[in-house]
Specification:
Length: 365
């Protein structure tokens, strides 16, 4: 195949347009150099390992774009800088999470046993005892709060999306939901306590009061999540239902709600996960007890967050003749591990339900 002078000119032009790139091992080299410099400065200055790791990350973020600017140019350097910042932010979020999970597992795993899950703290002043009364209290209080908040939140979201578009009441409701989103949890507890005091008197402390406080914190999350899911339902589905003569309420029940069911359930579970670890409102209105109380409307009720707080604030004393930590610390870490496990199970259940009830796309059919 013969070439012409025009072909040689085209090849010379395109060769000049090829952008030089850093070698694949550039990131490894920069990372090794950053670790070496940071390690040397850490040993010389006497810094901690955390400080050395932060310094190594900063050196990598500075070194990689600098080398890229020399070799690849300004646009590629800006892209590599943005990439380094994104990865740095990801690591900055991931490291505390891993450290927290590891710390809870390290301190709480040894306290988990069958007796720890099946016993209460009634009559226990030293070693022994468990979280059964707090676990049952958490499940009952959270379940009651869910029963209260989910219908209110769903009906509010349905009104905002389906009935109240552009109305003054809808705008006021949206504003109030936004305000409720930022309410501190202790304010919700004080509201529930004030409500119960007006009805039953000043000495009232019951588990249902904690459910009222948690419901106030759950409602904004349920409303917002359900509202966004309902807005994602295509209007063509509603119009097709109306064209068949189906009334609006039946369209919402049979068409809109099933389509948005997966996202709504995910929002509800996230709302439960958000309030299940609240301590201040439960400490104010539900109180604390060492015994099992399965009645939400009679007597104080212990919950896991309050149990953790009480055990860590009053850990007791070690057994006579031992130099170990107070027994309350181990119980507090064990209860924290159980609480994190419950939240993890709830989130996994939400993911599974969302995948099961997600609308069938062409790819999934």
């Amino acid at each position: 195949m013969t070439t012409t002078p025009l072909d040689h000119d085209f090849e010379s032009v395109t060769a000049g347009l090829v952008q030089p790139q850093l070698p694949r091992w550039a990131a490894v080299l920069i990372g090794a150099m950053a670790l070496a410099v940071a390690g040397l400065l850490t040993m010389v200055m006497g810094w901690s390992v955390v400080g050395g790791a932060i310094l190594a990350g900063l050196l990598f973020v500075i070194g990689m774009p600098t080398w890229s600017r020399v070799v690849e140019g300004g646009r590629a350097a800006a892209d590599r800088l943005a990439t380094c910042l994104v990865w740095g932010a990801f690591v900055a979020v991931l490291v505390p999470l891993i450290w927290l999970v590891w710390l809870v597992l390290k301190n709480g795993l040894g306290a988990i046993s069958l007796s720890f899950l099946n016993e209460s703290m009634r009559g226990v002043v030293g070693e022994g005892g468990g979280i059964y009364h707090a676990l049952m209290g958490t499940l009952l209080v959270t379940l009651a709060a869910t029963v209260i908040s989910v219908p209110i939140g769903l009906f509010t979201a349905i009104y905002l999306v389906e009935y109240g578009k552009g109305s003054r009441l809808a705008r006021v409701t949206t504003f109030l939901v936004d305000v409720m989103t930022g309410i501190p949890s202790i304010v919700a507890g004080l509201f529930a306590l004030a409500l119960l005091v007006l009805i039953f008197g000043p000495a009232i402390r019951i588990g249902f009061g904690g459910s009222i406080a948690l419901a106030l914190l759950m409602i904004p999350t349920v409303v917002r999540s359900a509202e966004e899911m309902l807005r994602l339902v295509p209007s063509d589905l509603r119009e097709a239902s109306y064209a068949l003569g189906v009334p609006k309420w039946r369209t919402i029940v049979k068409v809109v709600m099933p389509t948005a069911f997966g996202g709504i359930v995910t929002g509800i579970v996230l709302a439960i996960s958000r309030v299940i670890g609240e301590t201040a409102p439960l400490l104010i209105v539900a109180g604390a007890t060492d015994s099992v109380n399965m009645n939400l409307f009679n007597g104080r009720m212990m919950t896991l967050p309050v149990y953790i707080f009480s055990q860590y604030s009053s850990p007791g004393v070690p057994a006579f003749g031992t130099d170990g930590p107070p027994p309350g610390y181990a119980r507090a870490w064990g209860a924290a591990l159980v609480l994190i496990g419950i939240v993890m199970i709830l989130n996994l259940a939400a993911r599974i339900l969302q995948k099961i009830y997600a609308p069938k796309s062409d790819r999934r059919r």
